[in-house]
Amino acid sequence: MGLLKKILQDKEYAAKQAQYGLDAPEMTMYHREVILRKPFMKKLYMDWYEMILSKIDKNGKVLELGSGGGFLKTIFPEVITSDILSLPNCDKVINAYQLPYGENELSAIVMIDTLHHMGECERFFKEASRTLKKGGKIVMIEPANTFWSRIIYKNFHHEPFEEKAVEWDFPSAGPMSVANGALPWIVCVRDKEKFQKMFPDLKITSVKLHTPFRYLLSGGMPYKSMVPSWLFSTVTLKEKILSPFAKGLAMFQTIEITKV
User: What are 24-55's pLDDT values in tens digits?
Assistant: First the structure.
């Protein structure tokens, strides 16, 4: 695995990480740059954004958490973009544990790869419960826990993936450097009954497994892209054909939680 990682490693990314560290604002902005300059990866994010937007009420007040590395605002200008860091491409600096909104004010909270960085996610869900209007949604795309995803996340990703963790909480040293990639699965699948008892007005309405290969082929953040962008539609079609096997192959999941 070590030799393969060395061959695939993006040397510029490694240099940036060594220069800034994962938690620096400059690194988050560099993540955005990586997504935008990798055509295959950008198309994947476009696909994910369209998936998220298809599930929410876009006429209400929509908040995106962890916006810094993405570009949702370019396709949905009405979204309120935010990050825990002060970043030039975000509307607000927001801590997910203290949302600056009143009761029943938001129609949706959306995010990509953000929940698994929340070391005290219960605090976020309490705030979501308070600020979402009835029928409002949390829609997020997060790492999945499958046979295939565990191989990739545990061998090729810098973040821990602890699917056997007993507790939801973990110590937070920085917004990006500490995480548990398995947390969304733990909270919304393994401990779903516990979640529903803790937050009776937040109903987990859907967990859809998807994207077994596209993110991996894009190279993600630290690795070189392995395929040209013109193959995106072909790979997407093959993923759809393989969707019956998503339980074992998916690397990501789209989670919908509705306030009832």
Answer: 999 999 999 999 999 999 999 999 999 999 99
Nearest to 119 by CA among 188, 60, 205, 183: 183
Structure tokens at 23: 């938690």
Q: Centre a 10 Å sphere on the Cβ of residue 135 and count the other Cβ atoms it contains.
A: 12
Contact between residue 188 and residue 121 where contact means Cβ atoms under 8 Å apart: no
Residue range 57-100, pLDDT digits in tens: 999 999 999 999 999 999 999 999 999 999 999 999 999 999 99
Cβ(152)–Cβ(251) below 8 Å: yes
DSSP 10: -
Burial of 167 (0-12, 13-18, 19+ CB in 10 A): exposed
Distances in whole angstroms, Cα of residue 148 to Cα of each of 91, 144, 249 = 37, 9, 5
Model confidence at 3: pLDDT above 80:
no
Report residue 166 CA to chain centroid gap: 22
Domains and CATH numbers, the chain: 2-259 (3.40.50.150)
